Amino acid sequence: MNLSQRLGKIKDMARLDDKDIEPLSSDMDIKIAEMMSENIIGTIKLPVGIATNFLIDGKDYLIPMSIEEPSVVAAASHAAKLARPGGGFKTSYTPSIMIGQIQLMDIKEPAKSMKAILSKTAEIKKHANHQDSVMVKLGGGLIDVEVRDIPSSRGALVIVHLIVDVKDAMGANCVNSMCEGVAPFLEKLTGGRSVLKIISNLSDRRLVKAEATWKKELIGEDVIEGILDAYEFAKVDPYRCATNNKGVMNGIDAVAIATGNDFRALEAGAHAYAARDGYKPLATYKKNRDGDITGSIEMPISVGIVGGATKTNPVAKTSLKIMGIESAHELASVMASVGLANNFAALRAMVSEGIQKGHMRLHAKNIAMSAGASENEASDVAKKMVEKGDISVSRAKEILENIRKNKSFNKVR
């Protein structure tokens, strides 16, 4: 399909109207951009592609992914297609619990102060929940208080954790407000000095799990053995593991950007979680009784469908509508499934044809344009490079030169 046909198809399948489609094919209104950031001079637009074939918890999804690498969208779609005979992706999640941290210093008797803080949990809840009455009405808010005593070169640190249910929000703004609202009360209670009052992006109580099985009849027993070997490499070597986990985040970040979520927070949380007991792969693999390969992923995914750029960015609103997302839990489940799909696809490619073959084939148009081809010329140059199996800037320049010579010759004739 061409672009117009694809938009029409998505419009019909996701039941979108013209207002939903319009942001996808136009630049962001500069007035909206000015509300979103500071010292605005313009905007940058990334491609938004659709990952297909995803069956997650029995529901079919079309998934918007904002990323400049075509192979990421293609790989996710293909891995999802291969997972369908095994039932697709199955997910589960914990409540939307975030942690706010208040750093207290200059406390003379840490143990006594810690007991005093815990004895005033009810009062702390009142101070915290007063900061966001809307969230409390929706059933969220501060649900517990924890205290830690950590030695440091600057003296003893008493760290207060506010355990907050943020419901369908990512939660940073409300948790930060709660921390700042509670801090003066804690200073009076302990005689200490509050320093940092901020959310933690290691959201290890807001976890999502996703699992999928790929049949040996579809991908081959040799490929399964290769994936298990590659997974073992990532388990024992942090240099490999970093790139392995980057493959997971390729998919998750792309969905986060398309939906207006904070991909930097997701990256921080994912890698911190992976490093709890030595840096390990986010996705794990094993063979089941039938000899098929099962992949699973568990990680923190703190995303929202209310507040922030999810409401200000028109493309984010359309992306959520395309997926039919009804809760932050559902969006996190989709992201975890996409992350697992991209990791599986990368491992499968590396142990079979190699990662570069498919990537470069899909990247051929970009290379053609890097060589100086116009938009009209790029498709022809890319096609010829793929046919010859030589995808490089030097080859693109050679093909482009021949195309232009032939055009000039035909004009003269």
Mean pLDDT: 92
Strand order of the largest sheet: 3-8-10-9
N to C succession of SSEs: HHHEEHEEHHHEEHEEHHHHEEHHHHHHH
Helix content: 40-55%
- The level 1 CATH classification of the largest domain is Alpha Beta
Kindly name the structural category.
alpha+beta
Count structural domains. Answer: 3
* Fourth-tier CATH superfamily name of the largest domain: 3-hydroxy-3-methylglutaryl-coenzyme A Reductase, Chain A, domain 2
Percent of residues in beta strands: 15-25%
Number of strands: 10
C-alpha-based Rg, rounded: 25 Å
Helix run count = 19
Topology summary:
Blueprint: H1 3-13, H2 18-21, H3 30-36, E1 48-56, E2 59-66, H4 70-83, E3 90-93, E4 97-105, H5 110-119, H6 121-129, H7 133-137, E5 141-150, E6 157-165, H8 172-190, E7 193-199, E8 207-214, H9 216-219, H10 221-236, H11 238-258, H12 263-274, E9 283-287, E10 293-300, H13 309-312, H14 314-323, H15 328-351, H16 355-362, H17 364-370, H18 375-388, H19 393-412
Antiparallel strand pairs: 1-2, 3-8, 4-6, 4-7, 5-6, 8-10, 9-10
Helix pairs in contact: 4-15, 6-8, 10-11, 10-15, 11-12, 11-15, 17-18, 18-19
Short description:
The longest helix has 24 residues, at about 330-350. The chain is of the alpha+beta class and about 425 residues long.
Summary keywords:
Alpha-Beta Plaits; single chain; 413 residues; alpha+beta; Helicase, Ruva Protein, domain 3; 19 helices
Structure description:
With 413 residues, this protein is α+β, with helices and mostly antiparallel strands. The chain has three domains: 3-93 and 207-354, 3-hydroxy-3-methylglutaryl-coenzyme A Reductase, Chain A, domain 2 (Alpha-Beta Complex), CATH 3.90.770; 97-199, Alpha-Beta Plaits; 363-412, Helicase, Ruva Protein, domain 3 (Orthogonal Bundle). It has 19 helices and ten strands. The protein has helices at 3-13, 18-21, 30-36, 70-83, 110-119, 121-129, 133-137, 172-190, 216-219, 221-236, 238-258, 263-274, 309-312, 314-323, 328-351, 355-362, 364-370, 375-388, 393-412, and strands at residues 48-56, 59-66, 90-93, 97-105, 141-150, 157-165, 193-199, 207-214, 283-287, 293-300. The chain has a four-stranded antiparallel beta sheet with strand order 3-8-10-9. A four-stranded antiparallel beta sheet has the order 5-6-4-7. Helix 4 packs across helix 15 (328-351) and helix 18 (375-388) crosses helix 19. The two termini are 35 Å apart.
